[in-house]
Design a protein that fits this description.
Largest sheet: 6 strands, mixed
Shape: globular
CATH architecture: Alpha-Beta Complex
Bound molecules: coenzyme A
Number of helices: 11
Number of domains: 1
Radius of gyration: 17 Å
Length: about 260
């Protein structure tokens, strides 16, 4: 285990487990690095046929670590591994499976748009509060989410940041099935192992034919440029300060 991410390979399935449960698996820069490395390894190691994402504790992930965001907004520099993680996610040729319980916030939801099979525990809540944080959606989600569930629903998820429950998510095509929480891991694991037994070349072609990887990658670049600008905005600094101080943000006095 390194940097709160456990990675293990068994029966052709590389399981990537976010393991920072006391912080709801909020993803730090180092965690993005470990997950980006796992996806890169899956592309080159022939023993890896499928990648399975899961999270320890009661939440899949609370999304990007807000203390990391706050540090960047105050000018912290250094390599940001999220860029590599998103690029590897978009370009992944292996099937990606996700097992999601509790909160899946921000990238915790947008990364699911890159997963090929998604299983939700009945207590799962998908939340994309980018606008509430004075940011913009990322991970190609401004392209993928409206394409998947229609503009009206996608806009409401982004702009209002209201949680979506598991049943609704499955009913509108955001995930494959709702599972009792204590059966979630077994269900996702069984699906991943079933994929691992399918002909890998055929699976890779099928995925490539179903996804516009070039278009997704281009949209990630467009989003990232604006996201970076938004991170440095006075509005975002107010949002991060409000989270740290456990109070509602007040955007009325800050310039956009
Ligand atoms: N970044 C950093 N720390 C986070 C975090 C995040 N994104 N999300 C939660 N945490 C921390 C909390 O600060 C708290 O730490 P503490 O115990 O040291 O005070 C701990 O994780 C537990 O979180 P808490 O808010 O008490 O749990 P909850 O069950 O009441 O609520 C969430 C869970 C996920 C709904 C809530 O934590 C939340 O909204 N987090 C922010 C999500 C977010 O905006 N992410 C960015 C998306 S772009």
């Amino acid at each position: 285990m390194g940097e709160f991410v456990d990675v293990s390979l068994e029966a052709g399935v590389l399981t990537v487990t976010m393991a920072r449960p006391d912080k709801k698996n909020a993803i730090t820069n180092a965690m993005y690095g470990a997950m980006a490395d796992a996806l890169a390894r899956a592309e080159t190691d022939p023993a890896i046929r499928v990648v399975l994402f899961q999270g320890n504790g009661d939440s899949f992930t609370a999304g990007n670590d807000l203390a990391d965001f706050a540090a960047v907004s105050k000018g912290a520099s250094g390599e940001r591994h999220v860029t590599r993680f998103l690029a590897n996610l978009a370009a992944a040729t292996r099937p990606l499976v996700a097992a999601v319980q509790g909160n899946a916030v921000g990238v915790g939801t947008t990364m699911l748009l890159h997963c090929d099979l998604v299983y939700l525990a009945s207590n799962a809540r998908l939340i994309t509060p980018f606008v509430n944080l004075a940011l913009v959606p990322e991970a190609g989600s401004t392209y993928l989410l409206p394409q998947r569930i229609g503009y009206a629903r996608a806009y409401a998820m982004f702009a209002l940041g209201e949680p979506m429950d598991a049943e609704t998510a499955v009913s509108i095509g955001l995930a494959n099935a709702v599972v009792p929480p204590d059966e979630l891991r077994a269900k996702a694991r069984a699906a991943a192992e079933a994929l691992a037994k399918r002909p890998s070349g055929s699976l890779q072609h099928t995925k490539a034919l179903m996804r516009d990887t070039a278009g997704i990658t281009a949209q990630i670049a467009r989003e990232s440029k604006i996201f970076q600008e938004r991170l440095m905005s006075a509005e975002a600094r107010e949002a991060f300060a409000a989270f740290a101080e456990r109070r509602p943000p007040d955007f009325s006095k800050v310039a956009g």
